[in-house]
Amino acid sequence: MTGAPILTAAQMRAAEQAVFASGVPDYALMERAGAAAAAIIWRAGGLRDMLVLCGPGNNGGDGYVIARLLRERGVAVRVAALGESRTPSSQRARAEWGGPVEDLATAAPATQVVDALFGTGLSRGLDAAVAARLGELTQAASHSHAIDLPSGVETDSGALLSAVPRFRLCVALGALKPAHLLYPAAGCFDRLIYGPIGIAAPDQVHRLGPPRLMAPGVEAHKYTRGLVAVVGGAMAGAARLAAQSASSSGAGMVRLFAMDEAAAGPDAIIHQQVQTAADVAIALDDERIAVVLVGPGLGRDAAARDRLAATVTAGHRLVLDADALTLLAADAIPQGSILTPHEGEFRRLFGDLPGSKIDRARVAAAQCGAVVIYKGADSVIAAPDGRVAVAAGASTWLSTAGTGDVLAGLVGGRLAVTGDPFRAASEAVWLHGDAARRAGAAFVADDLPDALPAAIAARL
Ligand SMILES: NC(=O)C1=CN([C@@H]2O[C@H](COP(=O)(O)OP(=O)(O)OC[C@H]3O[C@@H](n4cnc5c(N)ncnc54)[C@H](O)[C@@H]3O)[C@@H](O)[C@H]2O)[C@@H](O)CC1
Ligand SMILES: [K+]
């Protein structure tokens, strides 16, 4: 489940310092980085003629190493620089290149362009003329490669500090950075390839990787596999969708406590009509219940508030979604819950927290003692103990009504199966993304539960 580690610019510098402290000379690390990137670019672009754009820092240094190594492979390489090289390693890399260095302002385009202007050291947006040149030369190339990061993106937040063109490929050196996964920066390249350079990286924050799931054991029965209760409300469809998703998530049983009469749907879901808060309390007075999901279709009126209060009071493990996130205050969230807020719900619950989406999710999780799935094209899953998983590249077709209800049901189901909120949240986000990929294009939320068994089977 743990994917590649994600390091901030400061953590990256610390990891590099640790390598230097172990006896590796500065320039040797730059050679490693340049060699890793050159090998990746070679596979992508082969012998096509190339222009390498080199900035003043170590990102530019990587560029000179790449230029030299690909020239050795027979590529017709030209180099254009933005000023002098300012670090000892990049000065040495430029000297080892030894070939002509053109001016970035006047260099002619090539079939391949390598952006080695700025990486993790970017401190402000590119000057307008430089950003425009980068844009022109990138658009003119059929093969465009960004070294470490596209120049102009802020490493830790994924914000664009100046106009950034779209690259075919981004080579992440040593570790992923937040900007590789967080939007808008994550939208500045088609493909991301990780180039290891032999640094030791902490993996408290990592890219969401494929989970390892388990088939039920021989002694399993419906209650040991987890009973999920879904408390519905005024909008019947949302809770039904969540219940349907929970029932295809691997859980043993799903009970839907809804205000409407039983509607057509999978007969495996036990449907019980529940009207008042007192009815909810009675329905949830069942110690076989592993997890209660509340929020999808709950409503926001006084009756909904009462149903929610009765649900919280019942004392089961909670998954809180949608209207529950609008009705509850952050300090009323029971510890050990899982929350699934989108941007608006997150801001309402936690206010305008500073930092990146990763930082905000982490602070929120620590504040309320719950696992937070901060949804979006770049969903961030944060645990109260500081662990974070960032899910990259979800299908954009997920931006349709009801997919949040499906995710909530899936989170409830996985929590009932595993009993571990961070693990359950991570598994659910992965399976949701994979179900969407399997559903293809222009699907509706109702299609996703049908795709879940195959997504689960692929991870056993
Ligand atoms: N330390 C090393 O030897 C290694 C460094 N690596 C590379 O080095 C990069 C980081 O290098 P640096 O820390 O030198 O940083 P950068 O090369 O990203 O840029 C820093 C330089 O650019 C200047 N600068 C920042 N923003 C600017 C702007 N908008 N306009 C004009 N100048 C600006 C800074 O004052 C500084 O001189 C990584 O992204 C990676 O590509 C990695 O290859 C690993 C090895
Ligand atoms: K770059």
UniProtKB/TrEMBL annotation:
<dbReference type="InterPro" id="IPR004443">
    <property type="entry name" value="YjeF_N_dom"/>
</dbReference>
<comment type="subunit">
    <text>Homotetramer.</text>
</comment>
<keyword id="KW-0547">Nucleotide-binding</keyword>
<keyword id="KW-0067">ATP-binding</keyword>
<keyword id="KW-0521">NADP</keyword>
<keyword id="KW-0511">Multifunctional enzyme</keyword>
<feature type="binding site">
    <location>
        <position position="151"/>
    </location>
    <ligand>
        <name>K(+)</name>
    </ligand>
</feature>
<comment type="similarity">
    <text>In the N-terminal section; belongs to the NnrE/AIBP family.</text>
</comment>
<feature type="binding site">
    <location>
        <position position="59"/>
    </location>
    <ligand>
        <name>K(+)</name>
    </ligand>
</feature>
<feature type="domain" description="YjeF C-terminal">
    <location>
        <begin position="205"/>
        <end position="459"/>
    </location>
</feature>
<feature type="binding site">
    <location>
        <position position="404"/>
    </location>
    <ligand>
        <name>AMP</name>
    </ligand>
</feature>
<comment type="function">
    <text>Bifunctional enzyme that catalyzes the epimerization of the S- and R-forms of NAD(P)HX and the dehydration of the S-form of NAD(P)HX at the expense of ADP, which is converted to AMP. This allows the repair of both epimers of NAD(P)HX, a damaged form of NAD(P)H that is a result of enzymatic or heat-dependent hydration.</text>
</comment>
<comment type="similarity">
    <text>Belongs to the NnrE/AIBP family.</text>
</comment>
<dbReference type="InterPro" id="IPR029056">
    <property type="entry name" value="Ribokinase-like"/>
</dbReference>
<feature type="binding site">
    <location>
        <begin position="119"/>
        <end position="125"/>
    </location>
    <ligand>
        <name>(6S)-NADPHX</name>
    </ligand>
</feature>
<dbReference type="InterPro" id="IPR017953">
    <property type="entry name" value="Carbohydrate_kinase_pred_CS"/>
</dbReference>
<dbReference type="InterPro" id="IPR030677">
    <property type="entry name" value="Nnr"/>
</dbReference>
<dbReference type="Pfam" id="PF03853">
    <property type="entry name" value="YjeF_N"/>
</dbReference>
<feature type="domain" description="YjeF N-terminal">
    <location>
        <begin position="12"/>
        <end position="205"/>
    </location>
</feature>
<keyword id="KW-0413">Isomerase</keyword>
<feature type="binding site">
    <location>
        <position position="342"/>
    </location>
    <ligand>
        <name>(6S)-NADPHX</name>
    </ligand>
</feature>
<keyword id="KW-0456">Lyase</keyword>
<dbReference type="Pfam" id="PF01256">
    <property type="entry name" value="Carb_kinase"/>
</dbReference>
<feature type="binding site">
    <location>
        <position position="405"/>
    </location>
    <ligand>
        <name>(6S)-NADPHX</name>
    </ligand>
</feature>
<protein>
    <recommendedName>
        <fullName>Bifunctional NAD(P)H-hydrate repair enzyme</fullName>
        <ecNumber>4.2.1.136</ecNumber>
        <ecNumber>5.1.99.6</ecNumber>
    </recommendedName>
</protein>
<feature type="binding site">
    <location>
        <begin position="58"/>
        <end position="62"/>
    </location>
    <ligand>
        <name>(6S)-NADPHX</name>
    </ligand>
</feature>
<dbReference type="InterPro" id="IPR036652">
    <property type="entry name" value="YjeF_N_dom_sf"/>
</dbReference>
<feature type="binding site">
    <location>
        <position position="148"/>
    </location>
    <ligand>
        <name>(6S)-NADPHX</name>
    </ligand>
</feature>
<feature type="binding site">
    <location>
        <begin position="375"/>
        <end position="379"/>
    </location>
    <ligand>
        <name>AMP</name>
    </ligand>
</feature>
<comment type="function">
    <text>Catalyzes the epimerization of the S- and R-forms of NAD(P)HX, a damaged form of NAD(P)H that is a result of enzymatic or heat-dependent hydration. This is a prerequisite for the S-specific NAD(P)H-hydrate dehydratase to allow the repair of both epimers of NAD(P)HX.</text>
</comment>
<keyword id="KW-0479">Metal-binding</keyword>
<feature type="binding site">
    <location>
        <position position="115"/>
    </location>
    <ligand>
        <name>K(+)</name>
    </ligand>
</feature>
<keyword id="KW-0520">NAD</keyword>
<keyword id="KW-0630">Potassium</keyword>
<dbReference type="InterPro" id="IPR000631">
    <property type="entry name" value="CARKD"/>
</dbReference>
<feature type="binding site">
    <location>
        <position position="297"/>
    </location>
    <ligand>
        <name>(6S)-NADPHX</name>
    </ligand>
</feature>
<feature type="binding site">
    <location>
        <position position="238"/>
    </location>
    <ligand>
        <name>(6S)-NADPHX</name>
    </ligand>
</feature>
